[in-house]
Design brief:
Blueprint (H helix, E strand, L loop, with lengths): L3 E7 L2 E12 L4 E2 L4 E3 L5 H4 L1 H6 L5 H7 L7 H14 L24 H14 L12 H10 L3 E4 L5 E6 H8 L4 H9 L1 H4 L5 H8 L4 E5 L3 E5 L5 E6 L7 H9 L7 E4 L5 E5 L1
Antiparallel strand pairs: 1-2, 1-11, 2-3, 2-9, 4-6, 5-6, 7-8, 8-9, 10-11
Helix pairs in contact: 3-4, 3-5, 3-8, 4-5
Length: about 270
């Protein structure tokens, strides 16, 4: 079947059209089986070495290690908690800083993942630095979990891996239950206000979801079926209507386009 066509309309005029491609482990196939990088959708798998290193992790620690957060207070507190477990400081985070975010590297949207990586290094007696290098034992463990894939450097400096959408869905289905359960318990830590993954988990209790850069979102249903959604042109605004149509979330199927006065002037659907 064809990719899902998402239109952006202002008034009576269509301003843009996006195509969303979908694969799931139950055989659903819409559009092409695109080959692209997992980006932040990989975070639940990148949290596996953390899970393997401890038997006393709290659910908020696993959730923030799997998060692309918005530097909300509860999210930053969870990052600090992981840093304390690692015996590390904010200066140890190798993610750098983001413009407009507070507290330097702590406010980076990937700081939870990086704090989890430091804690995993501490538990496994691996060198703390440079933990982001592909040759580091931590990244080698993640690479082994992913399997054969093209490799590049992600926005936060760690390796990222490219697979077909079908491969992404299959990989996401392997997320260990403690990590998936923590994300379901704390959707507010995984994304935050208005984040697609947070809102999906709230709309569909029992589901787990993780968004990634360039218009990607992966999800895992309670029955174990995993999904991968990818906007061909990388626009994340097309994801919510496509997800709403495929997964039957009515509140997702039309997204308002608003002007700076807050007035509804169009739609994405």
């Amino acid at each position: 079947m064809d990719a899902i066509r998402v239109t952006v309309q202002r008034g009576d005029v269509v301003e843009a059209v996006h195509h969303v491609h979908v694969r799931s482990t139950d055989g659903t196939a819409l559009g092409e089986d695109l080959h692209c990088f997992l980006r932040s959708s990989l975070k639940p798998i990148q949290a596996v070495p953390l899970l393997e290193g401890y038997d006393d992790l709290d659910s908020d620690e696993l959730a923030i290690a799997s998060a692309s957060h918005q530097a909300e207070p509860a999210q930053l507190e969870a990052v600090r908690k992981l840093l304390a477990r690692a015996g590390a400081e904010v200066a140890d985070l190798e993610c750098g800083s983001q413009d407009g975010r507070p507290d330097g590297p702590l406010g980076h949207n990937c700081s939870g993942k990086h704090a989890g990586m430091l804690a995993a290094c501490r538990a496994n007696d691996w060198p703390l630095h440079p933990y982001r290098e592909l040759s580091h034992p931590l990244q080698q463990r993640v690479a082994a979990l992913v399997g054969p894939a093209d490799v590049a450097v992600d926005g936060c400096g760690v390796p990222t891996f490219a697979l077909r959408l079908s491969g992404m869905a299959a990989l996401f289905a392997t997320t260990p239950e403690p990590i998936a359960a923590a994300m379901r318990e704390h959707p507010e830590l995984v994304g935050g206000r208005r984040a697609d993954d947070t809102d999906l988990m709230r709309a569909l209790p029992g589901w787990m979801a993780k968004r990634g850069a360039e218009g990607l979102l992966t999800a895992l249903a309670p029955d174990g079926v995993a999904w991968a959604f990818k906007t061909e042109d990388g626009s994340s605004r097309a994801l919510r209507p496509a997800i709403g149509q495929v997964l039957g979330i009515d509140s997702f199927q039309t997204v308002d386009v608003r002007n700076t006065l807050g007035e509804v002037v169009g739609s994405v659907r």
